[in-house]
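ok new one. same drill as before - structure tokens go in, u give me an amino acid for every spot. 136 of them this time. try not to just spam alanines like last time pls lmao
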């Protein structure tokens, strides 16, 4: 799974989300992208599942870009543990996304085929998304 190599602090606060994405909101590398329409956390396992789909689709021709990285640790306490006794251990890492953020981009495939691949990628994610194309 994806995880940062090192961090300044082992456990972080939950944080708050912006209203909309101010950076990373345009398709800049590929020709077709997958943009989120709501805010949330995308787990490292979800990103890995999407990477596998994109790698299979672009194996013969094409290229893809993953524009998010899970750098936020998510802590979880074990079941049947009472309140108190501190914060739980790190269970996995998440990427925080806000509406308008382009998460995945693809290029080198026909536009209809690229849209179909990104539609299957969106099934693996826990946030709502839409397929966007590059504005020229």
């Amino acid at each position: 799974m994806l995880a940062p190599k090192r961090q300044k602090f082992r456990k972080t606060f939950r944080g708050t989300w912006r209203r909309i994405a101010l950076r990373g909101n345009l398709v800049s590398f590929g020709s077709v992208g997958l943009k989120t329409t709501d805010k949330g956390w995308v787990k490292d396992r979800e990103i890995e599942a999407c990477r596998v789909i994109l790698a299979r689709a672009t194996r013969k021709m094409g290229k893809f870009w993953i524009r998010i990285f899970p750098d936020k640790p998510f802590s979880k306490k074990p079941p049947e543990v009472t309140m108190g006794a501190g914060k739980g251990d790190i269970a996995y890492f998440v990427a925080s996304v806000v509406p308008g953020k382009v998460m995945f981009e693809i290029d080198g495939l026909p536009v209809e085929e690229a849209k179909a691949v990104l539609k299957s990628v969106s099934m693996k994610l826990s946030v709502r998304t839409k397929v966007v194309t590059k504005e020229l």
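The first strand starts at residue 32 and ends at 36. and btw The beta strands are 32-36, 40-43, 63-66, 72-76, 89-97, 102-107, 129-133.
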